[in-house]
Amino acid sequence: MPHRNAPLTETGRLRLARCVVDDDWPLRRAAERFQVSVNTAKRWADRYRQHGEAGMADRSSRPHASPRRTPTRTERRIIKVRVLRRWGPARIAGLLRLVPSTVHRVLTRYGLARLTHLDRATGRVIRRYERARPGELVHVDIKKLGNIPDGGGHKVLGRQAGRKKRSGAGYSYIHTAVDDHSRLAYSEILTDEKQETAVAFWRRAQAFFASCGISVERVLTDNGSCYKARLWRDALA
After folding, report:
1. Does 182 share its domain with 206?
2. Which residue range(s) make up the domain with 85?
């Protein structure tokens, strides 16, 4: 795959090189034809002479030597502090008297996971729970949120005025279904969490998953009253 800033694809490089090497075009003429610099035209022509078509592929831009790279001893100290104390780059840099960006590069170079991806008790990488195929298991749940009155709540009007407007604002219920393999989700904001509402939501959610080519096999819920109702059980059956 060509570098994203490359002016030519591998096919374009090969055409340019063949014009220079095989057809004896002057470098300047080839450069104008393919809209690149003369130096670029010369580089691809030289590579074609040496390596043929294989020389048209991108090479690694990594330097052969890095004299200013962080010493191995310092890298080991960084890794030791990270493993034992589970600190972030800033705290490690403060302890070892380094620059945080240097510590971050070392951690990235050795593939050490972010702290948010680690279990704080054991230090092990947290593996995401996932089913084997789409539709094997779908999670369904409801999130209850208080509505914000017209004109704003207590954060805008203050505690006293906000409390006066709070009564009667009611709640909104976010019904959500999430596929446990693809993490594809379907959600609706509804006015209640009654069994009839939950069943109607599920039918629309199932139609959505079916439109995406997912056939639902099983559904997992908590012990909410709407999910323990016979109407819900019959709808899923």
Report:
1. yes
2. 72-117
